[in-house]
Specification:
structural molecule activity; cell projection; mainly alpha
């Protein structure tokens, strides 16, 4: 019995390399502002989902209490994370302004 019987073809490696190169190209095209906007939109969507599930529960529709709590906690945590990121960005900006050239 040979220990190294399975040797993958080179085609697999070329596919992985092309995927990796494509992802690098996409990353270079997306700026910081666009990434920040996308993440803030996701936070907003979570807030809206939480609000909708809560309203549906209050109306008496078929929504479980634990689903309402989960959506509310997800929205709360995503908002807290966004606030903390904003705070760190503000601290970094202020520190850059304090630097002497």
């Amino acid at each position: 019995m040979k220990i190294n019987e399975f040797i993958p073809s080179e085609g697999i490696y070329s596919q992985v390399n092309s995927i990796h190169k494509d992802s690098k190209k996409e990353d270079n095209n997306i700026g910081f502002g666009e990434t920040l906007k996308k993440q803030l939109n996701e936070v907003n969507e979570k807030q809206l989902e939480s609000q909708k599930v809560t309203e549906d529960f209050i109306k008496g529709e078929d929504v479980e209490v634990h689903d309402v709590m989960i959506k509310n906690e997800e929205a709360k945590l995503s908002l807290q994370l966004a606030v903390q990121v904003r705070n760190k960005l503000m601290e970094a900006y202020q520190e850059i302004n304090r630097m002497q050239v």
